[in-house]
Write a structure and sequence with these properties.
The chain is α+β, with helices and mostly antiparallel strands. The chain has helices spanning 2-50, 85-97, 131-140, 144-154, 156-165, 180-184, 193-205, 211-221, 275-296; strands at 57-63, 69-72, 78-79, 106-108, 128-130, 190-191, 238-246, 249-257, 262-269.
Length: 299
Amino acid sequence: MKIHSIIFSILVLYFNSLTYSFDKSSHTDNANELRYNQNVKIDSIIKSKISSFSYPIGIVFQDLNDEEKFFYNEKEIFPTASAIKIEILLHLFKEYERGKLNIYKMLPVNYTVGGSGLIQYFDINSLRLSYYNLAVLMIQQSDNTATNILIDALGMENINRTIQELGLFNTKLQRKMMDFAARKAGKENLSTPEDKLKLLNIIYNGKFLSDSLNKEVIKILSIPKQTPLLEGIDDEITLASKGGELDDVRCEMGIYYHKNFKYILVIMTKNLSNSKIGEEIIGSISKAIFDYMKMKYHR
């Protein structure tokens, strides 16, 4: 009887081990299948969002953990509106790195322009702001006066040379902010989703500036601001971003830093009947991609 009990116990252990091995194998297969479904789903998620969108749109997405990517009209040229200010920021810090200017030097504010930003509401009598503070206002407030003062001080041709140095061959700064006469004459600030992805990768990987200055650039881009990229996202997240808006243009781009994942998203639109339409589609796509990434990197 005792021998039978021992044999029975051995058989139970044996079959349990088989069940465990089978379950382990099944779990692995299911995990692989889930990952595969996720890779397919990013296409269907984004395409379902834009299937009924009747305006030109370009989208690029890159998972910075495993290099999963999505491209849609990535080579199409779009007006950037204020999103060109990222390139101005990089040029400013590169000139500082080269020793060509002191980023803390004070510049006079002799005029203001409208649109976004606070300087237009300041008393500018004897007002002076440093390159650095103008850059912060340019990015966080999207301040057009600050941007134009920087363009005047840095030189549009010099900024465009840096843009070429960055390898952004379809990106051009051709007018100052709020210069609608220039825009009407065909001088528009332009780029492509592909160029913007390259730009954000350069910043993310620290390929253009020293480590300390690159961190300053990311810090400035990460100052909290209103953006549809965070629409409906309640998680704690750092977003290094810049957007742009005109009556018929809306674009947003950024590097998302979440505790479990990191990714880049660029969305550009044009020829809109009004910019609100672009803002809504950008917010919808961004939220869908964020939810996808949370599922993909569920902890």
